[in-house]
Amino acid sequence: MSLPSVAQLAQDLSARRISARELAEESLARAEKNQALNVFVTRCENVALAAASAADVRLAAGNAGVLTGIPFAHKDIFCTNGIRTSCGSRMLDNFVPPYDATVSHQLNDAGAVLIGKTNMDEFAMGSSNESSFYGPVKNPWDTTRVPGGSSGGSAAAVAAGIVPFATGTDTGGSIRQPAAFCGITGLKPTYGRVSRLGMIAFASSLDCGGVLARSAEDCAHVLSAIAGFDAGDPTSASHAVDDYLSALNRPLAGLRIGLPRVYFGAGIAADVGTVVHAALAELEKLGAVLVNVDLLHADLAIPTYYVIAPAEASSNLARYDGVRYGYRCANPTSLEDLYTRTRAEGFGAEVKRRILVGTYVLSAGYYDAYYLRAQRARRLIANDFNTAFAQVDVLAGPTTPTVAFKLGEKSSDPLAMYAADINTVAMNLAGLPAISVPAGFSNGLPVGLQLIAPAFAEARLLNIAHRLQQATDWHARSPEIAYG
Amino acid sequence: MSIDSTTVRQIAHLARIGVAEQQLPALAAELNGVLDFVGQLAAADIGGIEPLAHPLDETLRLRDDVVSAIDQRDAFMRLAPDAQSGLYLVPKVIE
User: Fold this and answer.
1) CA distance A380 to A184
2) Considering A49, A83, A100, A175, which has the largest number of Cβ atoms within 10 A of its Cβ?
3) CB contact, 8 Å: A191 with chain B?
4) Treating both helix axes as pointing N-terminal to C-terminal, what angle do A270-285 and A458-471 enclose, rounded to 10 degrees?
């Protein structure tokens, strides 16, 4: 038995076999029942029921779209007017934005029903959801394991069947890695494809909004609603938005898939490699041709990322000063004391570590050695992809080097945690779209296949993922929790 | 390049993050771990490469110089930890 897709739910809603209100109530009840997963920072029952009633009016009037009445969850990084937006941090524990992110607007306009705001690594800095001020999320497949991060709450909410889709953001793998760990489909679009307005900034040249859902088709429906130019985002792309739905069923005959040798290298667990090769064999059966390729500077990706991302974070997070909004320390004795204690108490350990690293690499005397060198390496990494895409249509490999690891296993070792991003950070550096698709299981835990495409070729990724999902059923399997 | 407690104190000051004296050595060790790791870049042969700031190598566009946002001053001021008469309040800066 598989959980209903967005398209199935939309059909049930439009045929009035179920009401949006009933769907919202069911989703809220599942959220309530699965509290132990710690998926939500904030559940918004009243807002959800009001939105569901409005959706029912639209459905009755016949002016509903495919997302009208569909329950969803927002990663708690998207500003929601009147609903607390914490970004997983004590710093914003009391922050209730007076405006909506563009993505929030778009999904509200589409009639989707917001059930709650999902838990995440603090300011999206983490790969396990353990840096959240609100405590870690549990993986629905094995509650002793992490769901991945930083969009861990969103991935777990979808995997556990609480909502059919959730928003996420991806700065170095934060949509794809939790999607892989939770056995769902996660799409990181091209940089600039989805508006960053109202999406709380971590590293502005890397941050991408995107979607987590159970299938590529569901991702296509949601991406159709949130992709597009936004004048309010200075780096929004004006490139025309493709028709993602009509591209889903294109045949894969002759598709050239490049396998970067490094993505199957020494750091990749043998079980993950085996499962991914089996999934690639399914794509071969559908007519795809597999070709080995090289990304010559791939080994520079993680060090480059861990210079650029902290540098941008140190600049972006300078705004949290205890003056205008968010946390303020008690009884400040001077302005300096106000700043330093507010930031010492308001930020968690990983966020402080990254701000300090970022401050150092941008400081006088070290800028050239670290930041400028990282920007040069970034161009080489981006050029490698351009070279590869002259030979192949997409690239593929394991999304993550291992299946979901145990809670606490890496939380005291930042470098071990950073290494978990080995196959995902380069696409953010190069601004490319990438998707993680369920590829099978190892000892009952999901494995993700990552597909990477040239800029603005999201339709190609969704097409390949959809054809794979038509031929296999890995994406349709859910953890026992989802059926309880 | 290894950093010591003095450097950490200075970075923490630049970042306006309070760090207790007794935490400095442990923090220095943590940061050295990260900096040693990213220090791999020093060995890369990348001297003549043009730096890449925007992932798709695009430049920021300019918007027209027109009013585009509504006045939400009151809504934003209500978020302040301490405010009065439209002003943010902080501890005394000038004696």
Assistant:
1) 32
2) A175
3) yes
4) 90
Phi, psi of A281 (to 5 degrees): -65, -35
Q: Closest-CA residue in chain A for B74?
A: A98
Print burial letters for A238-275: b (CB count within 10 Å at least 16), e (below 16).
Answer: eeebbebbebbeeebeebebbbbebbbeeebeebbbeb
Q: Residue A81 is encoded by which pair of tokens?
A: 């007017």
CA distance A63 to A170: 33
Question: What pLDDT is recorded for position B1?
Answer: 57
How many Å apart are CA A222 and CA B59, to the nearest integer?
A: 28
Please tell me whether residue B57 adopts helix, strand or coil conformation. coil
> Long-range contacts made by residues B81-86, C-beta under 8 angstroms, separation at least 24?
B81/A322, B81/A323, B81/A325, B81/A326, B81/A327, B81/A328, B82/A328
Residue of A359, A366, A371 to mutate, interface with B, max B Cβ within 10 Å: A359
Dist. CA A148–CA A126, nearest whole Å: 8
Smallest CA–CA distance, residue A339 to chain B, in Å, is 6
A337 touches chain B (CB under 8 A): yes
Tell me, what's the pLDDT at A1? 62
Cα(A429)–Cα(A24) distance, integer angstroms = 38
Q: pTM to 2 decimals?
A: 0.97
Q: Which tens digits make up the pLDDT trace of B22-77?
A: 999 999 999 999 999 999 999 998 889 999 998 887 778 888 899 888 889 999 99
**pLDDT-derived band at A432, boundaries 50, 70, 90:** very high
Range A275-279 contact pairs with CB under 8 angstroms and sequence separation of 24 or more: A275/A439, A275/A440, A275/A441, A275/A442, A275/A447, A276/A396, A276/A397, A276/A398, A276/A439, A276/A447, A276/A449, A278/A439, A278/A440, A279/A437, A279/A439, A279/A440, A279/A449, A279/A468, A279/A472, A279/A474
Q: Which residues of B touch A382 (CB under 8 A)?
A: 52, 55, 57
Nearest to B17 among A355, A375, A378 (CB): A355
Are B11 and A96 inside 8 Å of each other by CB? no
At A146-202, the pLDDT tens digits run 999 999 999 999 999 999 999 999 999 999 999 999 999 999 999 999 999 999 999
- Which among A144, A78, A139 has a CA at the least distance from the CA of A108? A78
Under 8 Å CB-to-CB from A390, ≥6 apart: which residues? none
